[in-house]
Amino acid sequence: MTDKTIQDLAQTVGRPVDKLLEQVREAGLPQRNANDTITTEQQDTLVNHLKKVHGQDASGAGKITLKRKTTSTAKVASTSGKAKTINVEVRKKHTFTKPNPEQIAAEAKARVEAEAKGRTDEKVNQQTTQQPREKAENKAQATLDAMRAAQKKETVKAETSTTEVVVKRRSTNKPIKPIVVKPTETAEQKKAREAESAKLKATEEAVRRKAAEEAQQRTLEQMRQMASKYSNDDTGATIRVIDDSPLAAGLVGQAYEDSFNQEDREIKRGGATTNPRAGKKGGRGGDAQAEQSFSKSHHKRGLKTSQANKHGFEKPVKKQIYDVEIGEKIVVADLAQKMAIKVREVIKTLMKMGELVTQNQAIDQDTAVLVVEEMGHNPVLVSDTQAEDNLLVAAEEARGEQTTRPPVVTIMGHVDHGKTSLLDRIRRSKVAAGEAGGITQHIGAYHVETDKGIITFLDTPGHAAFTAMRSRGAKATDIVVLVVAADDGVMPQTAEAIDHARAAGTPIIVAINKMDKESADPDRVLNELTTKQIVPEQWGGDVPVAMVSAHSGQGIDELLDLILIQAELMELKASSEGAAQGVVIEARVDKGRGAVTSILVQNGTLNIGDLVLAGSSYGRVRAMSDENGQPIKSAGPSIPVEILGLPDAPMAGDEVLVVNDEKKAREVADARADRERQKRIDRQSAMRLENIMASMGKKDVPAVNVILKADVRGTLEALTVALDELSTDEVKVRVISSGVGAITESDVTLAESSEAVLLGFNVRADTTARQKSDQDGIDIRYYSIIYELIDDVKNAMSGKLAPEHRETILGVAQVREVFRSSKFGAAAGCMVMEGVIHRNKPIRVLRDDVVVFQGELESLRRYKDVVDEVRAGMECGLAVKGYNDIKALDKIEVYDVQMVKRSL
Ligand SMILES: Nc1nc2c(ncn2[C@@H]2O[C@H](COP(=O)(O)OP(=O)(O)OP(=O)(O)O)[C@@H](O)[C@H]2O)c(=O)[nH]1
């Protein structure tokens, strides 16, 4: 050992300079810089200091400390679903101790040497050079022995002095470099030491690698567990907890606790996290547990939560199969909810099946069944009206023997032919003398008692009410009395009434009224009726006819007799026992009294206090009166009554049923309200001509029902014949009503109740008809070319509709005044009633809603200015090109033609 600089020494011993300087300072030596010289004595002092620091003294066992730090990376899924890389550092420290006999020998040797020290100076000098080498040899030997001992895993405590070797791994790629005090040794010794050291190093490296791999494995396993817990992935990986891992005990244990706490909270709220069908107690239900597979591994943790033995936080590994109840229609979103899957999944499945729907759209039962099966669940078909059907069946069962009931009659006919007069006459002639002249109130119906029996009249004359009722599915009327004025004959509304009665399949009795009049010509009337396929009995047909006069009372009894005979033929029966069932005739909301509802009892007996379900409202009968305003306590079949007690006014034609369970009443009322809403939506699409084919398929005999209105009788007849000829064996065309003139509200009502399309040839719908058709979604088509109309119906029959030229009416102006000039011909001063009048669009001139001219405008002005358009509410002046016959009150209709691709 020679004097050298700190830097040189650091290089020799393989230590960083600053570390060495620190140790020098700790040893109490003066060197502070890398270039400072350290003498051999000072080097000895440093070695002795280091020995002391590392626990080496003259007496002690060999002690080896192995320190390891491994750094690895692991990928974990974060809660956001993204994978992220984290660094994992594992630190380990192992200390091995062993008694060192060599040290004892070295100590003895040192003692002998110390004795010899004082003998000669020469010897002293010699010893001075030998001592460090021997010390180093001893130390190296001790190190090797200690490492061997460590390799054999002998851990024996001893009081002898120890030598410390710190093996530190700096990086995973670099070999472990032990810090040793380098001995001065012979070549042989060096070789032996190196061989031994290499062997030890290899062994140690293997042990280290194994330990590091195990640690990494364990860490990764824990990471995976945590990732599967916190991610939304529902692959259902089973969680295994390694008890002796501090990480598992910490974070994973926390994850368990979190899960249980959350479940506890949900249970307290009454919800269930994992199984929506397992009732309020979450996953506790027996069935639910059978369907789910929960890992029991968490039991090992012995967590002290109340639910620890009952719940697992894993998602079910097995798919749950639901019984999905499907009514006649189901909204896509509801269907998805019943299967507990996302709506977009259902929409995707429907798209694959070729159905493009939105989540709020309803699909039919058949399609829904396919979707449910496709998604692996069980479809269960239920009727929408199940609850109602049950109520009706229960009411029917409670009913007793059926007896003959009075007929219910509706009087129809053309305006001013005497419907009201006839009803009054019948009523006056048949009410008890005491009541005559008394206060009668209009409740929409009354009944009369004749010698031969009771007859009930619905006293809302006209077919509008009749058809409105029918369109709600009610069949209140048994017989129609068709009033025709003897002096007027068959008029448009007479024909309409015939169509309505026929469409409903109701028998007709003709009353030829005003027979007292001199101009009465009953034969002409009968003739005209025959052209409408109403053949009187006296002419060999099947329609009874009575000649009456509402004024004189002539023939009234005869008419009543005919009604009763017809009723007898029809064998009308009902039972007066059991819960009442009937139909709403009229309903209104009266200030102070609330909803006032007129009901025609059709079966059973209605009593005060009964819980009545009418349409989508229900309530108890608080008060009940007859048609004379007399309070009554009960009413049997065919008796009209007025009741108070419903929360709101139902619609005419709504079914009425007495129920005894309020819950059921509410259930049915809600279901009806839903159905009503759905029906409105369906009707809007089904009533379109292009959808006629689809709805035809559902009928026994496919038929296209048509209501035809035309400008002139000749065209009407030609069209009717042409349409009749379109009928084939497979599909029929039925012109259920036809007439000359504008399309009226009544046409729209008939179209609605008969599921017919309304075709107008050179005619338009009047304002009320247009409003009603818009409101009810009834399709009205206008034509001005015969073959286009025929083609459309033909295509609708075959289910193939070519792209349609659809007209949109852009604006309507009414002619207020006509100015004539020799220069321009006729110029019309107009008021724009609807929309916008455009100068450059095609126009039609309408007179009484019938087209009289078709062409374009010559000019359009606001005051003196020529303008391109004029809006509703403004006046304008216009001239029609090539048409000078314009008149006051004519309408100028501006329209546009668009190509609309049709879909079925
Ligand atoms: N001479 C005579 N006139 C009658 C007879 N019946 C009704 N009238 C008259 O005919 C007119 C119309 O009678 P209504 O009973 O109002 O006829 P309606 O069919 O109910 O009329 P709308 O309610 O407008 O549809 C009235 O002026 C009646 O007086 C009858 O038998 N003989």
Automatic annotation (TrEMBL):
Residues 407-555 are annotated as: G-domain. Keywords: Cytoplasm, GTP-binding, Initiation factor, Nucleotide-binding, Protein biosynthesis. PROSITE patterns: G_TR_2, IF2. SUPFAM superfamilies: Initiation factor IF2/eIF5b, domain 3, P-loop containing nucleoside triphosphate hydrolases, Putative DNA-binding domain, Translation proteins. GO terms for molecular function: GTP binding; GTPase activity; translation initiation factor activity. It comes from the Bacteria. The keyword Protein biosynthesis applies. Residues 404-573 form the Tr-type G domain. Residues 108-124 have a biased composition (Basic and acidic residues). GO terms for cellular component: cytosol. Residues 104-137, 185-204, 264-312 are annotated as: Disordered. One of the essential components for the initiation of protein synthesis. Protects formylmethionyl-tRNA from spontaneous hydrolysis and promotes its binding to the 30S ribosomal subunits. Also involved in the hydrolysis of GTP during the formation of the 70S ribosomal complex. This is Translation initiation factor IF-2. It comes from Acinetobacter guerrae. The lineage of its organism: Bacteria, Pseudomonadati, Pseudomonadota, Gammaproteobacteria, Moraxellales. The gene is infB.
